[in-house]
C-alpha cells in the first residue's frame, strides 16, 4: 500500500473520519494536561519568576508557527509535482492555523518581554522574524482568498509558498545580521534538553504534543471542509452549465 | 527580446509619467519626512539612509501593478505567451523595463535627495551603490508579485501584501550598507549579501514569475 | 499521405474552470485546409482554441500541433493604443523574427493608415490590424477566435482572401465563428455533439471531480 | 487554587487568556465553517438527486 493512496479524496475522507475522534480526544487530553501542569504545578524560575509559565504556550506556538509553514511548503510541493488535490487543500487548510500560532507566539513573546526587557516590543531578531513570517502567512491566505478558480489558486499559492520560504529564511538571516538580539539562545532544541531543568521540560513536552495534535485535528477538519467545499463548487458549476 | 524592451520603454514614455512618476513620488516622500520628524539636520542625517531606501521601495511598488495588467487586458499577454520568446525571457524583459523606468532614475537622483536629508559625505557613494545593486531585485520580485496577481480585478493592495515581505532582505542589507558606509564601518558583508540576493533573484525568480503567468493564462 | 498533417487531434477533451466542457474531439487539418468550428455560445470554442495554441493543457487525448507552428488571435487584438500601425506590426515582426511588414499592410488594406496611432483607428480597422499581425508571424497554422467581429462585409471578404492566400501558400487555419465567411472550401465542424457528458454518464472528470474519484 | 504568580500575574494570566481565546476562536471558526459547508453540500446533493457523495 502506498502512502499516496491517502491523496485520494474519498480515501482521505474515510480515513480522516476514522482518525478525527482519536486525534481530537488526544488533543484535549494533552493540551489541557500540558497547560494545566505548566500553569498550576510547576515552580517559578529563580530569575524570571512566574513568567516562565508562559514558556508552555510561547514555545509550542513558535515551533508550530515555523513547522506549519514547513508543512505547507511540503504539501505545496506535492501538489505542484504530483497534483494531488488533497495536498493543495491541506496547505490551504493549514495556513490560518499557522497564522494564529504565529500570532500567539508574537503576543506571548511581547507580554513575556515586557517584564523581562522592560518594553512591550523589542526589535529582537526572533520576534521580528516572526512578524515577517506573520506577513507571509497574511499574503498567502489573501492570495488563496482572491482567486476564484481553485486550481489556479492552488498553483499560484504553491509558487508563492516556495518563493516565500526562500525569502523567509533570507529574512531570518538578514534580521539576525541587522540586530543581534536579546533572546536566549536555542535552549529548547531536543538534543539540548539538559539546558532546561526537568521540572520545566516534561510539562513543556506534553504541551508541545498538545499543540501538534491540535494542529493535526484542526487541519483534518479544515481539509475535510475544503474537500466538501470543492465538491459543492463543482456540483454548482455543473448545475449551472446543464 | 530587444524589440519587447524597446516597445515597453516606448509605451512608458508615451503613456506619460513612466519615468517621472516614481521620481516625483520619491521627491514627495523625501519632502514630507522632515515635516514628520522635524527639521533638525542631525536627526535627518541619521535616518536618511533608511528613508531613502524606503522611498525607493515605495516608488518601485507604485508602478508594479501596471507591469502585466495592460498587456493582460488588451490580449498582448496571450500573444506573447504563444510567441517564440520564452516566457521567462518576457518576464525578465518586463522587469528590466520596470527597472529602467523606475529603479534607474532613482539611482541617478538619489544623491540629490540625499542632500535634502543632510546625508553625510561617504553616504552618497554608498547610497548610489546600494540602490544600483538592490533595485534590480526589487523590480524582479515586483514582477513576480505582478505575475501572481495578473488576472485579478483589484490586485493592487494584494500585490503590495505579497511583495513587501519579499523586499525585507534587500531593504535590510541595502539600508545597512549605507549606514555602515556613513559610519565608516566594515561594508563587505552587506555589500556581498546585497549583490548575492540581487544576482540570485534575477537569475531564479523569473522562472517562478513565468510559471505564475502560465497558470494565470490557463 | 505524403506528409503529416499540421494539426491532428484525437480524443481531445478540454476543461474550463475545472470542469470538462468538450470531449472526444477528433480532427486533422492538413496543409492548405481550413476548419471552421461552430457551436452555441459557451460550448468551449475559445477553450478549445486556447488549448490548440498551447496556452492550456488538454484534459485528455492527444494533440499534435507544434505550439511553434501556431499563430493565435484572440478576441482582443493585443494592440497598443499609443503606438502607430507600423510600430505595432514591426514589434510583432521582430518578436517572430520575420522581415517586412509591407505585404501584411497591403493585404489588410492598411497602407494608408500606416502612421496613424492605433487608438485613432475604428473598431474594424483595429481588427484588420490584429489580423495583419497573423501575416507577419510567418507561422503555418492560424488559430482564430471570432476573427470577423466588428468587420463590415468588405473587410470580411478581405479577410477571406487573406485566409485563402495563406492556405494556398501551404498554411492551415482553424477558425471559430458564427457567421458565414464565404470560405466554402473549408470543412465545418459543429462542436455540439462533443459537449462533455457529466461523469455519472461516463464523461471525463475535470480536476474538480477528480477530487472525488 | 490559582498559584501565586507574584508580580508577574498580569503577564502570565494575560498570555494564557489571549492564547486560549485565540485557540478557541480558531476552533470555533473551523467547526462553524465545517458545519456550514457540510449542510450546503448535503442540500446541493439532495437537490441534484445524487446523495451518494
From TrEMBL, chain A:
Key word RNA-binding present in the record?
no
Example GO BP: cytochrome complex assembly
Q: Where is the signal peptide?
A: none
- Give the InterPro entries listed for this entry: Cyt_c_assembly (IPR002541), Cyt_c_biogenesis_CcmC (IPR003557), Cyt_c_biogenesis_CcsA/CcmC (IPR045062)
Species of origin reads Phaeovulum veldkampii DSM 11550
One of the Pfam families matching this protein, by short name: Cytochrom_C_asm
Which positions, given as ranges, span the membrane? 20-42, 54-81, 93-115, 127-147, 159-179, 199-221
- Write the record's keywords in alphabetical order, separated by commas: Cell inner membrane, Cell membrane, Cytochrome c-type biogenesis, Membrane, Transmembrane, Transmembrane helix, Transport
In its keyword annotation, does this UniProt entry include Transmembrane? yes
**Cell compartment(s), UniProt:** Cell inner membrane; Membrane
The Gene Ontology CC terms held by the record are: plasma membrane
Report domain Cytochrome c assembly protein positions. Answer: 5-183
Q: List the Gene Ontology MF annotations in alphabetical order.
A: heme binding; heme transmembrane transporter activity
The record gives the membrane topology as: Multi-pass membrane protein
Q: Which family does it belong to?
A: Belongs to the CcmC/CycZ/HelC family.
Q: What does this protein do?
A: Required for the export of heme to the periplasm for the biogenesis of c-type cytochromes.
Please state the protein's primary subcellular location: membrane
Its name, as the record gives it, is: Heme exporter protein C
From TrEMBL, chain B:
Signal peptide stretch: none
Q: Where in the cell is it found?
A: Cell inner membrane
Q: Does the keyword Transmembrane apply?
A: yes
Per UniProt, what is the membrane topology?
Multi-pass membrane protein
Q: Name one GO molecular function term.
A: heme transmembrane transporter activity
A GO cellular-component term linked to this record: plasma membrane
Q: Where are the transmembrane segments?
A: 12-37, 43-64, 96-117, 123-150, 157-178, 190-213
User: Which ranges of the sequence are coiled-coil?
Assistant: none
User: Which NCBIfam families would you find in this protein's record?
Assistant: ccmB (TIGR01190)
Write down what this protein is called. Answer: Heme exporter protein B
UniProtKB/TrEMBL annotation, chain C:
Which Gene3D superfamilies does the UniProt entry name for this protein?
P-loop containing nucleotide triphosphate hydrolases
List residues of the ABC transporter domain.
7-213
Keyword Nucleotide-binding among UniProt keywords: yes
Superkingdom classification of source = Bacteria
What GO molecular function terms would the record report? ATP binding; ATP hydrolysis activity; transmembrane transporter activity
Signal sequence region: none
Supply one GO BP term. cytochrome complex assembly
Q: Does the keyword Mitochondrion apply?
A: no
- Write the record's keywords in alphabetical order, separated by commas: ATP-binding, Cytochrome c-type biogenesis, Membrane, Nucleotide-binding, Translocase, Transport
**In its UniProt entry, what is this protein called?**
Heme ABC exporter ATP-binding protein CcmA
Protein's gene:
ccmA
From TrEMBL, chain D:
Write out the transmembrane intervals: 12-32
Question: Domain of life, per the record?
Answer: Bacteria
Report the locations given in the UniProt record: Cell inner membrane
Q: What membrane topology does this protein have? A: Single-pass membrane protein
The reply on keyword Phosphoprotein is no
InterPro entries found in the cross-reference section: Haem_export_protD_CcmD
Keyword DNA repair tagged = no
Alphabetical keyword list: Cell inner membrane, Cell membrane, Cytochrome c-type biogenesis, Membrane, Transmembrane, Transmembrane helix, Transport
State a GO cellular component annotated for this protein.
plasma membrane
Provide the GO biological process annotations. cytochrome complex assembly; heme transport
Record-stated family: Belongs to the CcmD/CycX/HelD family.
- Chain's role: Required for the export of heme to the periplasm for the biogenesis of c-type cytochromes.
- The protein's name is Heme exporter protein D
Q: Which organism is it from?
A: Phaeovulum veldkampii DSM 11550
Whichever gene encodes this chain, its name is ccmD
Amino acid at each position: 500500500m502506498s502512502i499516496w493512496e491517502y491523496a485520494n479524496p474519498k480515501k482521505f475522507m474515510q480515513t480522516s473520519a476514522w482518525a478525527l475522534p482519536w486525534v481530537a480526544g488526544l488533543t484535549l487530553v494533552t493540551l489541557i494536561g500540558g497547560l494545566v501542569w505548566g500553569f498550576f504545578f510547576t515552580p517559578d524560575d529563580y530569575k524570571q519568576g512566574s513568567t516562565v509559565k508562559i514558556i508552555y504556550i510561547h514555545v509550542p506556538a513558535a515551533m508550530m508557527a515555523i513547522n506549519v509553514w514547513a508543512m505547507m511548503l511540503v504539501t505545496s510541493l506535492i501538489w505542484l509535482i504530483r497534483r494531488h488535490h488533497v495536498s493543495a487543500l491541506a496547505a490551504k487548510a493549514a495556513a490560518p492555523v499557522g497564522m494564529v500560532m504565529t500570532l500567539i507566539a508574537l503576543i506571548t513573546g511581547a507580554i513575556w518581554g515586557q517584564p523581562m526587557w522592560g518594553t512591550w516590543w523589542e526589535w529582537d531578531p526572533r520576534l521580528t522574524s516572526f512578524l515577517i513570517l506573520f506577513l507571509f502567512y497574511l499574503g498567502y491566505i489573501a492570495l488563496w482568498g482572491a482567486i476564484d478558480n481553485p486550481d489556479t489558486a492552488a498553483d499560484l499559492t504553491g509558487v508563492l509558498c516556495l518563493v516565500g520560504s526562500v525569502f523567509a529564511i533570507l529574512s531570518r538571516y538578514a534580521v539576525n545580521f541587522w540586530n543581534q538580539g536579546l533572546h536566549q539562545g536555542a535552549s529548547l532544541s531536543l538534543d539540548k534538553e539538559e539546558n532546561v531543568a526537568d521540572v520545566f521540560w516534561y510539562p513543556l513536552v506534553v504541551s508541545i504534543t498538545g499543540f501538534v495534535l491540535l494542529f493535526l485535528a484542526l487541519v483534518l477538519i479544515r481539509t475535510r471542509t475544503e474537500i466538501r467545499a470543492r465538491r459543492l463548487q463543482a456540483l454548482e458549476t455543473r448545475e449551472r452549465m446543464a | 527580446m530587444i524589440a519587447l524592451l524597446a516597445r515597453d520603454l516606448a509605451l512608458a514614455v508615451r503613456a506619460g509619467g513612466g519615468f517621472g512618476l516614481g521620481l516625483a513620488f520619491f521627491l514627495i516622500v523625501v519632502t514630507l519626512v522632515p515635516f514628520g520628524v522635524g527639521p533638525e539636520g542631525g536627526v535627518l542625517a541619521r535616518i536618511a539612509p533608511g528613508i531613502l531606501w524606503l522611498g525607493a521601495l515605495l516608488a518601485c511598488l507604485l508602478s508594479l501593478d501596471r507591469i502585466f495588467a495592460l498587456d493582460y487586458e488588451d490580449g498582448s499577454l496571450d500573444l506573447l505567451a504563444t510567441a517564440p520568446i520564452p516566457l521567462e525571457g518576457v518576464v525578465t524583459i518586463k522587469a528590466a523595463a520596470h527597472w529602467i523606468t523606475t529603479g534607474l532614475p532613482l539611482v541617478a537622483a538619489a544623491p540629490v535627495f540625499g542632500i535634502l536629508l543632510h546625508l553625510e559625505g561617504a553616504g552618497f557613494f554608498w547610497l548610489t551603490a546600494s540602490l544600483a545593486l538592490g533595485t534590480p531585485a526589487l523590480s524582479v520580485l515586483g514582477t513576480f508579485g505582478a505575475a501572481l496577481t495578473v488576472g485579478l480585478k483589484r490586485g493592487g493592495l494584494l500585490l503590495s501584501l505579497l511583495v513587501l515581505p519579499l523586499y525585507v532582505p534587500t531593504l535590510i542589507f541595502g539600508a545597512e550598507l549605507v549606514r555602515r558606509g556613513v559610519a565608516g564601518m566594515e561594508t563587505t558583508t552587506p555589500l556581498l549579501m546585497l549583490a548575492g540576493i540581487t544576482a540570485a533573484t534575477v537569475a531564479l525568480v523569473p522562472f517562478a514569475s513565468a510559471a505564475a503567468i502560465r497558470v494565470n493564462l490557463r | 499521405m505524403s506528409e503529416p498533417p499540421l494539426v491532428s487531434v484525437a480524443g481531445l477533451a478540454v476543461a474550463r474552470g475545472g470542469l470538462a466542457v468538450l470531449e472526444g474531439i477528433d480532427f486533422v487539418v492538413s496543409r492548405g485546409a481550413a476548419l471552421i468550428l461552430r457551436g452555441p455560445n459557451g460550448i468551449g470554442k475559445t477553450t478549445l482554441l486556447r488549448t490548440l495554441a498551447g496556452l492550456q493543457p488538454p484534459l485528455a487525448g492527444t494533440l499534435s500541433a507544434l505550439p511553434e507552428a501556431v499563430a493565435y488571435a484572440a478576441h482582443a487584438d493585443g494592440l497598443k493604443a499609443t503606438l502607430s500601425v507600423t510600430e505595432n506590426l514591426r514589434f510583432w515582426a521582430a518578436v517572430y523574427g520575420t522581415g517586412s511588414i509591407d505585404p501584411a499592410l497591403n493585404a489588410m488594406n492598411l497602407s494608408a493608415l500606416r502612421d496613424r496611432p492605433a487608438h485613432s483607428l475604428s473598431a474594424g480597422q483595429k481588427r484588420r490590424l490584429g489580423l495583419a499581425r497573423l501575416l507577419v508571424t510567418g507561422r503555418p497554422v492560424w488559430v482564430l477566435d471570432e476573427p470577423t467581429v466588428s468587420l463590415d462585409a468588405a473587410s470580411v471578404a478581405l479577410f477571406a482572401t487573406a485566409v485563402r492566400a495563406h492556405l494556398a501558400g501551404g498554411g492551415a487555419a482553424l477558425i471559430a465563428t458564427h457567421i458565414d465567411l464565404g470560405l466554402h472550401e473549408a470543412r465545418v465542424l459543429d462542436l455540439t455533439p462533443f459537449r462533455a457528458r457529466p461523469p455519472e454518464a461516463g464523461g471525463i472528470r475535470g480536476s474538480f471531480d477528480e477530487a472525488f474519484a | 487554587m490559582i498559584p501565586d504568580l507574584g508580580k508577574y500575574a498580569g503577564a502570565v494570566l494575560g498570555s494564557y487568556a489571549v492564547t486560549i481565546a485565540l485557540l478557541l476562536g480558531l476552533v470555533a471558526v473551523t467547526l462553524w465553517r465545517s458545519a456550514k459547508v457540510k449542510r450546503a453540500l448535503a442540500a446541493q446533493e439532495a437537490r441534484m438527486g445524487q446523495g451518494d457523495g
